[in-house]
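ingest -> validate -> predict -> emit
validate: passed (alphabet ok, no gaps, 95 aa)
predict: started
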Amino acid sequence: MATAVCAGATYLCIKAALALWEARRWAAYVAMFFGVLFLWFSEDFVHYLLHVERTTVDDGYAILSAPFLLAVGLWWCIYLNLPHVRAYFRQDADE
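emit:
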């Protein structure tokens, strides 16, 4: 079951990346969803930075991946909602 879920998610990522390259509107929504997921996954790192006194020794693992997830998540959520980018992806529905 887990293999099927991972294979389906990988297939969706590849199809969304190709559709994003072709400026499809649904791919922008998928990218924004993944941006929100990245922000959700980096939440522990932000909590670690704000509450250093409550952390344990094992909480430092997020320093490796969380800054990347935070930056990419913010980039996808903010950039894909800018008016000129939304207008660019809206052209897909007009054609």
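The first helix runs from residue 2 to 21.
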